[in-house]
Amino acid sequence: MIVVGGEALIDLVPVAQPPGALVPRPGGGPYNTALALGRLGAQTAFCSRVSADGFGVSLLDGLRAAGVDLSLVQRGPEPTTLAVPSLAPDGSAAYRFYVEGTADRLFTLPAALPTGTRALALGTCSLALEPGASAYEALLRRESGRGLLTLLDPNIRPALIGDPTAYRARFLGWLPYVSVLKLSEEDARWLGGRVSDWLAAGPSAVVLTRGAQGLSVRTREGAQYEVPARRVAVADTIGAGDTVNAALLHRLSALPAGEPVDWPGVLAYAAHAAALTCTRAGAEPPYAAELGG
Fold first, then answer.
1. How far apart are CA 32 and CA 46, in angstroms?
2. What does the pLDDT look like over 197-209, one tens digit per residue?
3. DSSP output for 47-84
4. Fewer Cβ within 10 Å of end Cβ, the chain: N or C?
5. Backbone torsions φ then ψ of 169, nearest 5 degrees
């Protein structure tokens, strides 16, 4: 079982016709990661607090259709978080958020994760917005201590971070509890640190997404690998990084204890999955059959 913790929200995605129109689509980095894992065939559970409003119902319907376990989902009467992406000509997205008083911010620490849980993934808005951020941080520390594979994707949203200095310090405090740190080049620049320093703080590997330049990884042992991005017609990049999270977790969590990681193979699988996501508007990760299994 892979548990993904964090927010589920609605992306109001711009469309070409009619001009200025916004179409609601399920989103949120953790939500997209859980959805992608379910579509890839991984046994997955989503751990969050989701609104009981119409958007919340549709979010959970999407996860349910992908076979994601919802037993860890908390429900609340507060509204669903909304995100409005603005798309650049290359398909990349910047976001404006509506988060005041929303349900996912009120997440509380669950008593336990399901028996057989092997991995935990956290990231994005859920680690920046209190009081839920502290609960997710406590979950990371607790489950890392139990020996779970943990993946952190900070997926920085500057508009939600009121005190960048405090957030950067808090990020460093998470690293001793992280097995794999995955982040984009933009995230790395914003955080201002060095991969070597992050590896020394705890993670066994740092995976960097580099847009059209592909993916790279550095390991604590000093190994480095790169794979190119697949060339596709890009609709937008929404959900591509989240799909990388899912692909990494799907492959890494299936490895027997002590078996070395085939990083070129893992990265190539992740690059293929992310490329397919980029060909579709909104966060629509691929299914296992589209990747050959």
1. 10
2. 999 999 999 999 9
3. E-EEESSHHHHHHHHHHHHTT-B-TT-EEESSPPPEEE
4. C
5. -65, -40
Name the residue with tokens 């065939």: 41
pLDDT tens digits, one per residue of 4-44: 999 999 988 777 778 778 889 899 999 999 999 999 999 99
151-160: burial string, b at 16+ Cβ within 10 Å, e else = bbbbbbbeeb
Phi and psi of 197, rounded to 5°?
A: -70, -40
Using CA atoms, how far apart are residues 157 and 211, in angstroms rounded to an integer?
Answer: 17
Find residue 86's DSSP bridge partners: 94
Q: What is the pLDDT of residues 138-174, one digit of tens each?
A: 999 999 999 999 999 999 999 899 999 999 999 999 9
Sheet holding 119-123, edge to edge: 44-47, 2-5, 119-123, 149-153, 180-184, 205-209, 215-219, 224-227
Nearest to 156 by CA among 120, 138, 181, 180: 181
Residue type, 135: A
DSSP per-residue letters across the chain: -EEEES--EEEEEE-SSSTT-EEEEEE-HHHHHHHHHHHHT--EEEE-EEESSHHHHHHHHHHHHTT-B-TT-EEESSPPPEEEEEE-TTS-EEEEEE-TT-GGGG----S-PPTT--EEEEEGGGGTSTTHHHHHHHHHHHHHHTT-EEEEE----GGG-S-HHHHHHHHHHHGGG-SEEEEEHHHHHHHT--HHHHHHHS-SEEEEE-GGG-EEEEETTS-EEEEPPPP---S--TTHHHHHHHHHHHHHTTSPTTPPP-HHHHHHHHHHHHHHHHTSSSS-PPPGGGGT-
Work out the angle between the directed axes of helices 240-252 and 29-40 (0-180°, nearest 10).
50
